[in-house]
Amino acid sequence: MPPAPGTVLLAGVVGSTAYGFAHAGSDVDRLGLFAAPTEDFHGLHRPAESQVTTEPDTTLHEAAKWCRLALTCNPTASELVWLPADLYEVRSPLGEELIAIRGSFLSAPAVRNSYLGYADQQFRKLLGRDTADPAGLRRAAKHARHLVRLTEQGVRLHETGENVVRLPDPERVRALGDRIAEHPAAAEPLLAAAAERFARPGVLPPAPDPRPAEAWLRRVRAAHYTPPAQDTPLVRTPPVPAAR
Q1: Alpha helix positions (H), the chain
Q2: Tens of pLDDT along 115-133?
Q3: How far apart are CA 225 and CA 187, in angstroms?
Q4: In Å, how far from its chain's centre is CA 179?
């Protein structure tokens, strides 16, 4: 079941469209976060932490899950609070507050591990593609583009503290990805250079500061709490007789 209207706090267009890779036939990916009703956390079953739909391709994370992902600097989740203004489709007051504290989620080790880790995943996928087949070559080029993007975005984030989602030169990245798809070994110097730059001191702290996220999440829970009706009868448990 999708989140109720009004509970989506922040949402926008992400993926290839956001990076500048999209073409006429590209899918449009959307990412957002929502607040489950606070009272749903008080029962036996916790609310769903994510909602994923297709046509359109949309992923929505519950607020607490999104915060946990962002504190690990998950590249896909984190980019939601770094989007260019024109890519947001929902930007509630609580969403604005989250954007304002986005820097508190960052840490040098997590950025390095996440971005280099995801780039390495793309490299392994690239090596597994049959590039003799046109479809396989296209998939390999996609993996290669994201490998380049992840290394460059991650290094920039490490060195400046800013996550630039919309690439300044997507055509250069696309062309480099095409070359790497045909010659995967060309990616190895990029990965090595990124690792070397990550090893140098950057501007990010050694650990994130979870306090702003915790305070923000408590404001979310307060804003989405509906007190029970006053006339709801209380179920009283009869006293247990004392043992003789």
Answers
A1: 15-19, 63-71, 75-78, 93-100, 108-127, 134-160, 170-182, 187-199, 211-223
A2: 999 999 999 999 888 877 8
A3: 50
A4: 28
